[in-house]
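User:
Hi there, any thoughts?
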Amino acid sequence: MTPYLAAEDLSMFGRDPWWLVVIKAVFCFAFLMVTVLVSIVMERKVIAWMQLRIGPNRHGPWGMLQSLADGVKLMLKEDLIVKRADKVVYILAPIVAAIPAFMAIAVIPFGPAGNEISIFGHRTTMQLTDLPIAMLYILAVASIGIYGIVLAGWSSGSTYPLLGGLRSCAQMISYEIAMGASFASVFLYSGSMSTSTIVAQQHDRWYIVLLPVSFILYVVTMVGETNRAPFDMPESEGDLVGGFNTEYSSIKFAMFMLAEYVNMVTVAAVSTTLFLGGWRAPWPISTFWAGANHGWWPMLWFVAKVVTLLFVFVWLRASLPRVRYDQLMKLGWKVLIPVSVVWLMLVATVRALRNENYDFADIALYVGGGVLALLLISFVADMFRDKGGKEAAARPADEPAAFDPMAGGYPVPPLPGQELPPVPRRSPRRERELIVSGGPDTVSDGSTDGKEASDG
């Protein structure tokens, strides 16, 4: 595997003076905050444009300061603390949700590591830092942020926030498995977990071309990880009033909202780094312009790709309705995880054959043969399963177990194979006798028919 392993050269990191590290950290924070403000306005205006209605147009030119006005309004609202809440956890939960959202941007490259720029006469890279396991760091930080949502739902002392927090926990478990498998495919091709090395390995071809299934899997899982529509189950106002943040107001509510949008920017930056060439210029530009990937230009390409993916978030929210929770779990466990595991095995097989110096034609033959064998086995298994199902249907069915809809004192929905007991209905003759018998309930509108019935 030696020819395909990337040589990680991280010696250019860790040499900056402390004041330059502070400047770069402040830039990363400012970049996220400004992008969040732009994303909120863009979301509202783009959705309004898609739905043929008027978006924000009051605050600032063309309504561009609407998100800033919303932030000021939230900070000036009354800050309430629920009486039954666990106050320490209740206050810490928004902080736990917001802080990890900012931490992942530290290892995202805005430009090439070898192409240093000058800041106040000091040469430095366009990246705060990098690690040999930078992608594992991003996964760990993303997992910590979910704890803020779970703790917010639990500490509120209310039913609906608790359900929202539990939904978020289950959603994280089911979707991070597929996300990790999509990352592993990139690791196999790049030979590294360093973000700068992964981008450097895409010098001739982006991984969205080599690993399209991994890209699609990551796009779906990143929407689920950020709790965005159509996967916004933890704050589903249709059945949970507001979800985990129902009992929050003022700046605490604003921090949850900030964490959601910062996570959107972070996952878009990670997707750009892993699959879209990172800071590299798009293909037509990079072919005829030699300086497209030098100087400050790489930051422009990076920001353009991130904004494009943010538009995809907005597009999904404007186009798709919210899925049911059982559909969300079924998609995660029965579709995304099996597909990601099978795809990972396929990628590992291809890389192993390439490391053994097999030709592309031989690799395609072996992989195609394996896929056809799996399809044949699946077809035979389906045939036997259908045959067994028909035989079972031909046999006389056993008597179903009696179903009690009030088991335990609560209404219980029937399980598959169970039926509700028949509801006794009054005969038409009995209904006529009740009407003729008269009474205060039979005369509802003072009509002549009702009067005659009561007189009778």
